[in-house]
Amino acid sequence: MPVAPAVLYDNHGRPLEYVRVAVTDRCNLRCFYCMPAEGIEYMPKNALLSYEEMERVVGILAGLGVRKVRLTGGEPFVRRDLVPFMDRLSRIPGISDISLTTNGVLTAPHIPELVRLGIRSVNLSLDTLDRARFLRITRRDELPRVLDTLHALLATNIAVKINAVVMDGQNIEDLIPLAELTRELPVDVRFIEEMPFNGGSHGAIALPWNHVRIREHLRGAFPGLHALPTPAGATATAYAIPGHVGQLGIIAAYSRTFCGTCNRIRLTAEGGLKTCLYDQGVLDVRTLLRAGSSDDEVRAALMHAFRHRAADGFEAERQRPVHQLSFESMSTIGG
């Protein structure tokens, strides 16, 4: 008889089956909500995990019950040889789902390879459909290339989710046009509360546009907007608009309403384990690997971290040893 796959649980009874792996801290955009205009101080190359080290960690996690891998950055395609690395990940026993988050600037030439590898979904970061606002937000004039990537992805069987950060005074006028994309296109457009991971780009944020206000703003334009069943582990509350091909989603990333069923962990580009987006890192995996630790020793350290996971993002934030007005850049922690 086939052996049932292992299931990994944290100390709160939540299954851990999804790891987000940041393959680089580098990015070719300079989004103001993520980093200052001059960028962040990137880590030296030897401080980043090698592909071989990432592959080893994912293999250990797969043996514990992790099934899904999402590759993030920075911008993943800034790092060379990303696709061959994805190919190797797809061959790890137990890994059944590999996906990708990208800003779309460098992605289009690689789409045929993503299809060949059986990549199931791509999350595309896109905060506006207006070229001038895109330039203001990202500090780069790359909207045409991102839209080319969007349409190239939609021409395949890869599921596309658009991630749009909602920023007061920056892109509020874009919420309805972005939502309108779902009328004719089979795409999920997800609106995300702004978070404090700006790398010192600006100080502590207020949240005038929380998930409730975003929903009511959308409902004002689409009175038929209604919630759909939300599976356990999902970060987005899903919504449908009658007559629309695609769907909408709202992610309460700052309000942190979904922590009770969170099933994901993060491996940063420098090998830090984060069991919550808001913690400051709970395990230095890179040091374990480079000190010659065996797989069993790495596995034991990971399990210890999973058994001491914060109950939610608020507890994780309170436990940070360094309290500061601005957090690290999202580019360093993998989105």
Amino-to-carboxy terminus distance: 39 Å
Give unreliable regions as ranges: none
The CATH class label is Alpha Beta
The counted number of beta strands is: 12
Structural class determined from secondary elements:
alpha/beta
Number of separate structural domains: 1
GO molecular function: 4 iron, 4 sulfur cluster binding; cyclic pyranopterin monophosphate synthase activity; GTP 3',8'-cyclase activity; GTP binding; metal ion binding
Keywords: 4Fe-4S, GTP-binding, Iron, Iron-sulfur, Lyase, Metal-binding, Molybdenum cofactor biosynthesis, Nucleotide-binding, S-adenosyl-L-methionine
EC number: 4.1.99.22
Domain Radical SAM core: 11-227
What does this structure look like?
It catalyses: GTP + AH2 + S-adenosyl-L-methionine = (8S)-3',8-cyclo-7,8-dihydroguanosine 5'-triphosphate + 5'-deoxyadenosine + L-methionine + A + H(+). Its EC number is 4.1.99.22. The chain is an alpha/beta fold and 335 residues long. The chain has a single domain, classed as TIM Barrel, CATH 3.20.20.70. Helices cover 30% and strands 17% of the residues. The protein has helices at residues 51-64, 82-90, 111-117, 131-138, 143-154, 175-184, 211-221, 285-290, 295-306, 313-318, 330-333; strands at residues 18-22, 68-72, 97-102, 121-125, 159-166, 188-193, 226-227, 236-240, 247-251, 264-267, 272-274, 283-284. Strands 7-8-9-6-5-4-3-2-1-10-11-12 form a twelve-stranded mixed β-sheet. Strand 2 (68-72), helix 2 and strand 3 (97-102) form a beta-alpha-beta unit. The longest helix is centred in the N-terminal third of the chain and has 14 residues, at 51-64. It starts with 17 loop residues before the first strand and ends with a helix. The model has no long low-confidence stretch (mean pLDDT 91).
